[in-house]
Predict the 3D structure of the following.
Amino acid sequence: MPAKNETYWFYSLSALFLITELVFIYFEIYPALLLPLVLLFLFLAFYRLDVFYLSIVFLTPLSIPLQEFFPQLPFNLSIPSEPLLILLLFILIYRLFLKDSPERAFLFHPLTLAIVIYLTWMLISALTSTMPLVSLKFFISHTWFIAGAYFFAYEIFKRPGNIPRFLWLYIIPLALVILFTLFNQSQAGLINQKAAHSAMKPFYNDHTAYGAILALFIPVLAGMFFVRKKIRRAPGWIVFVLFLLFFTALIFSYSRAAWLSLALAFGIFVLVKFRVRFITIALFSLILAGLFFSYRTMVLQKLERNKQESSTSFAQHISSITNIQTDASNMERINRWKCALRMFDKKPVLGWGPGTYMFQYAPFQNSNDRTIISTDFGDRGNAHSEYLGPLAESGLPGFLTVLGVFILTFLTGLRVYSRATEKWVSNLSVALLTGLSSYFIHGLMNNFLDTDKAAIPFWSFLAILVALDLHYSKPENTEIPQSGIPE
């Protein structure tokens, strides 16, 4: 009898659902046709939270800003990834009330503590902000990125089968975006630099964000060649084809920052592979910084003699990286950096408030720093730096918390690489570390961690490194645990 009742309710609810959908179609309420997907995600959110998060990962490269559909909206969200991340945040908060807290080793891991300090100071500076509402919104959006992509992601990365799932579920839709972008570029000519700036819209807002993500994943694809098939879950030829596709897309992105960051990240890869100690790398970096400071006048005079503009010629485009005299993009970036430093000088401890740079930097522009793309109202974006942005918005402590997260990420990756007892762990860790290094370098010139496209892979890469550190790099853990998700 109970089985008959269940069958009755199943068919009754199915019929009601179909009738409802037909009514929506009749009255031309087409958005309601998405109701099945909404119900599916709600089901996953409450019964398969791991699959729910991996679904968000897949949808992130394909998500589109809400303002693409409703330009007059005063706020923006990436649809559907960010609403799903918000739902995930509420579920995680509910789980905390049920005493379902993460394991102690993870909570007290140095990188986790650094991230908690980073968020804590962001909240403090948001409460003292010159624009509290803007800063609180900025803090909350960062919280739903980090809660899902780091704190929850760690839980699923404890099962090694979920690591390649995550990587493929981001790489595959990103490959679709690449094909879409290259097709758009081919219509205007692949060597058309101007077309490259917007060919990836609406999925990415410009070629710099697109290039940064390509540079983040290219080392991972390269590393997959050296991870055994059981872990990478794909034949080598597929990995090779995707590597070529991503590398080609990076070249035709015309993103100089992405090219430079990947080249320098390769240098870091070489240092890691030769097991050069972190303290040696740090001291060498300090020496270089000291030499630059000592000979800064000579260096700046040399740079000012470079008049090469951005060009469709790859050689000339690379040469234009150091043009700080006539290249509008480079000059405007320097203008933003100088504004950030002047803002820091005014509020060195608490800053102006997270997310407020774009609203506050206009008065800090000097007339001799302004470019043809500068505006009187300073309404064209952020500080173009993952380091100087927090320095202006959250003061010196904010800058140090960001630097702390980046340094501890690097140290965690080095520890995993040096302590790995299995080849797949060491190869994966160095691939992730190289990709993250490209982003750390790219962060000197741009900042994208306030977007889902960069935040999801970035914080998830950190979660993978911590999972490898705690579960797969200790001498006693030589066996690979089996994934709890069916193959």
About this structure: Confidence is low (pLDDT under 50) at residues 313-320, 476-487.
